[in-house]
């Protein structure tokens, strides 16, 4: 065989192996978690409070905490992110102010989550006096996912062909009518897909919420958004590292991980369904 | 020219940044006639036509000097309402750009943003405009179908129908046939002739034969200037400028 052909084969195998590697990683991860956690999943596990130092009972407060935290984060981050993106893409005139915003967005996206946690602690918990609470944690997560939401929303807005805007403007639509009636609806699926993916990433964040409102253990559900809460990622962390009886808490840990994965998976699924629905509705 | 003047430009110049795209253009476009603007690529045809409905406003670096009078009103005056202007001056673009909605909705939208919400009235307008654009017979059974499922030529006629829905006086067409096949082009040209009975049509075209076929007046542009403007017959048969003749006879362009 010629050397060139051999080289082709080597490269091909290398690339193939890299692809295989990622599939194997996912398979091992899923197998590990499923085998450890699937036996634990039951109606009682999902709907009951933890008992006996979290070694038995359910994880209902954590599920509820994570779900309400995500809802609240979405309510804060989504409008803010989408409006900023609309401003940047449709309205902002090139200049120092616009450049400053763009620079801020890019840099914020690279800040580690622990730093957001500290900022949240300083700004929302202490300075604004919101205390350790759901709302503090949600605000912290919201500013954390904001850059990603803005970036993906900008991407989606730019993907709307310029001639659609021109068409609407030429009919005598105002800029806002053009944005509202045309650009936004056509860009929304892309915006939502990116945003939901960002939020599902945030659902698993531990560092920012430890400092802003997640509780180690509570005997009651949060009474309002100004109360502390329990969340899946933090509970997984504490159970896995701080438990006095690691053997006994292991099934609970795996069960909780499995539930968290399912929540994240569901959010991603929603993103895919939304995207496919609108892709069929608005075809270019 | 004996006809009434619809659009008049006075010493119109335009810059994109430092680059001058239009140079001191003086032109009187007559009412209810078809005026074609021809010339080689990059000569400023599209830029000129986009001044008439201030579509150039959306380009940040664009700067305009001089006046454009439509019905005697300076459209670059500070008191001019651009929305009102564009309601009066419709535009059809090079690439068909129907909204990704239903055929009905494409036309109804245009009407609705100008305040007509009555369902019965909307139905009437949609039918009337589609008939005017010679499209009604082809789409009357599928008004709820997606506009994007139409052929290129049908999409372009839909865009014309949409422009008619806001009842403009002037219709600007920026190379409306450049993306279409010859049969679709013939239909649009027939439509342009028909529209000129009621509307002032200004059409930019790359295609000299098209200009000769559809227009009453022709302006020949070269590097930002209107070299010659007159009756189409005269421009094509007996141009007074050598540059025009060279272009018309295909020596360049």
Write a structural description.
The complex is a heterodimer of chains A (284) and B (253). Chain A is mainly alpha-helical and 284 residues long. Chain A has helices at residues 3-37, 43-47, 60-91, 96-109, 113-127, 134-158, 162-170, 175-203, 207-210, 232-242, 246-281; strands spanning 50-51, 56-57. Chain A folds into 2 domains: 1-36; 59-282, MetI-like fold (Orthogonal Bundle), CATH 1.10.3720.10. Helix content of chain A is 76%, strand content 1%. A two-stranded antiparallel sheet of chain A has the order 1-2. In chain A, helix 5 (113-127) packs across helix 6 (134-158), helix 8 runs antiparallel to helix 11 (246-281) and helix 10 packs antiparallel against helix 11 (246-281). Chain A is globular. Chain B is an alpha/beta fold. Chain B has 10 helices and 10 strands. Chain B has helices at residues 45-49, 82-88, 103-112, 119-132, 136-139, 152-165, 182-195, 208-214, 232-237, 242-248, and strands at residues 5-16, 19-30, 34-38, 62-70, 73-74, 89-92, 170-174, 200-204, 217-222, 225-231. The model of chain B has no long low-confidence stretch (mean pLDDT 92). The chains are: A mainly alpha (284), B alpha/beta (253). Chain A binds chain B through residues 93-94, 161, 163-174, 177, 181-182, 186, 281-284, and chain B through 53, 55, 58, 60, 83-84, 86-87, 90-91, 93, 95, 97-100, 109-110, 113-114, 146, 148, 159, 162-163, 166.
């Amino acid at each position: 065989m010629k050397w060139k052909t051999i080289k082709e084969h080597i490269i091909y195998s290398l690339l193939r192996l890299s692809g295989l590697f990622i599939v194997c990683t996912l398979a091992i991860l899923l197998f590990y978690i499923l085998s450890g956690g699937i036996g634990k999943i039951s109606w009682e596990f999902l709907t009951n409070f933890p008992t006996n130092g979290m070694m038995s009972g359910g994880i209902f407060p954590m599920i509820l905490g994570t779900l309400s935290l995500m809802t609240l984060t979405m309510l804060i981050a989504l409008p803010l992110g989408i409006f900023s993106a609309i401003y940047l893409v449709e309205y902002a005139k090139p200049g120092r102010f616009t450049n400053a915003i763009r620079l801020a967005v890019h840099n914020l996206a690279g800040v580690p989550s622990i730093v957001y946690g500290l900022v949240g602690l300083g700004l929302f918990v202490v300075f604004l006096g919101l205390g350790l609470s759901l709302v503090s944690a949600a605000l912290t997560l919201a500013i954390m996912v904001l850059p990603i939401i803005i970036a993906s929303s900008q991407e989606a807005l730019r993907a709307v062909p310029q001639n659609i805007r021109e068409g609407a403007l030429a009919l005598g639509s105002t800029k806002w009518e053009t944005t509202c009636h045309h650009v936004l609806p056509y860009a929304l699926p892309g915006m939502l897909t990116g945003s939901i993916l960002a939020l599902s990433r945030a659902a698993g964040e531990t560092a920012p919420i430890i400092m802003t409102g997640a509780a180690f253990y509570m005997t009651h559900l949060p009474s309002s958004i100004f109360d502390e809460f329990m969340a899946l990622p933090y509970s997984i962390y504490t159970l896995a590292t701080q438990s006095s009886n690691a053997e006994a808490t292991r099934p609970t840990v795996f069960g909780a991980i499995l539930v968290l994965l399912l929540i994240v998976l569901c959010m991603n699924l929603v993103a895919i369904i939304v995207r496919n629905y609108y892709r069929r509705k608005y075809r270019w | 020219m004996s006809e009434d003047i619809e659009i008049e430009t006075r010493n119109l110049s335009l810059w994109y940044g430092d680059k001058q795209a239009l140079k001191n253009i003086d032109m009187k476009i007559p009412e209810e006639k078809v005026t074609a603007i021809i010339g080689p690529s990059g000569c400023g045809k599209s830029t000129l036509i986009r001044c008439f409905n201030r579509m150039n406003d959306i380009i940040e670096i664009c700067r305009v000097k001089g006046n454009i009078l439509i019905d005697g009103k300076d459209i670059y005056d500070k008191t001019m309402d651009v929305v009102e202007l564009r309601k009066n001056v419709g535009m059809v673009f090079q690439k068909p750009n129907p909204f990704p909605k239903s055929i009905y909705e494409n036309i109804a939208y245009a009407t609705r943003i100008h305040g007509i919400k009555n369902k019965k009235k909307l139905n009437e307008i949609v039918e009337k405009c589609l008939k005017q654009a010679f499209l009604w017979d082809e789409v009357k059974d599928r008004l709820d179908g997606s506009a994007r499922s139409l052929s290129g030529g049908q999409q372009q006629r839909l865009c014309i129908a949409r422009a008619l829905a806001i009842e403009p006086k002037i219709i600007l067409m920026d190379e409306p046939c450049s993306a279409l096949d010859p049969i679709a082009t013939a239909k649009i040209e027939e439509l342009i002739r028909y529209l000129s009975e009621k509307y002032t049509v200004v059409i930019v075209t790359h295609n000299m034969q098209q200009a000769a076929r559809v227009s009453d007046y022709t302006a020949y542009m070269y590097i930002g200037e209107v070299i010659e403007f007159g009756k189409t017959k005269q421009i094509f048969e007996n141009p007074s400028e050598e540059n025009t003749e060279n272009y018309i006879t295909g020596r360049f362009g």
